[in-house]
Amino acid sequence: MTPPGPPELHTPRLILRPLALEDHIQVQQIFPHWEIVQHLNNKVPWPFPEDGVLTYYREAALPAIVRGEQWQWTLRLKQQPDQIIGSISLFKNESNNRGFWLASQWQRRGLMTEAVIAVNDFWFDVFGFQVLRTPKAAANITSRRISEKTGMRLIATGTGEYVSGRLPSETWEQTAEESRAWRATNL
Ligand SMILES: CC(C)(COP(=O)(O)OP(=O)(O)OC[C@H]1O[C@@H](n2cnc3c(N)ncnc32)[C@H](O)[C@@H]1OP(=O)(O)O)[C@@H](O)C(=O)NCCC(=O)NCCS
């Protein structure tokens, strides 16, 4: 099946492959773990159903991709292109434009930072959006760090409903101009 949505993207170490329905089998094995979901929005059901990924892909993600409202990629190491290790998504709305997760054994190697840089370029340069906003739990130090080190600004604080409950939240933002300036000095 030809997946809908944007093209495959490449970073130094990763392949970002557009989401396909059959990915649910691998993702169901690696996504529903507490260390991954605890700081995700409480729209993620917990305990996570056995068919949770299939249901989400079939009823929410793929229809939204077909409608042109979101773009999702699975992440794979170039060295093991058949093995899914995480996911990154872009959402067309006012306040939440990007989401990502990576299975624990591949974390803390700078991989998600590579994926973020690739999809940010896509968001600003291919889609032509002028601003990217990402809410997150303030306690999610790793996600905050990715925003910080890719040149985003903290613009608001509040509270959010997460899988682990109601928590202080932050919204980070970057404009197209800021993204290009960051790229020019950091890459
Ligand atoms: C967020 C997530 C995708 C990060 O993936 P990753 O590939 O490990 O991220 P990177 O290695 O590119 O960058 C992580 C940064 O956070 C830092 N970091 C990680 N854990 C940290 C900790 N406990 N305390 C302080 N800094 C930490 C890393 O050192 C790195 O910063 P550096 O490059 O300046 O050293 C991964 O932790 C994850 O899947 N978390 C669960 C899902 C989630 O919360 N998603 C985001 C929702 S907003």
The percent range for strand residues is 25-35%
The count of DSSP E runs of length 2 or more, i.e. the number of strands, is 8
Low-pLDDT windows of residues: none
What is the radius of gyration?
Answer: 16 Å
CATH architecture: 3-Layer(aba) Sandwich
Word description of this protein:
The chain has 187 residues and is an alpha+beta fold. It is built from six helices and eight strands; from the N terminus they run ββαααβββαβαββα. The strands form two sheets. A five-stranded antiparallel β-sheet has the order 1-2-3-4-5, with helices on both faces. It has a three-stranded antiparallel β-sheet with strand order 6-8-7. α1 crosses α3 (52-66). The model has no long low-confidence stretch (mean pLDDT 96). The structure holds coenzyme A. Coenzyme A is lined by residues 36, 39-40, 100-102, 107-113, 136, 140-143, 145-146, 149.
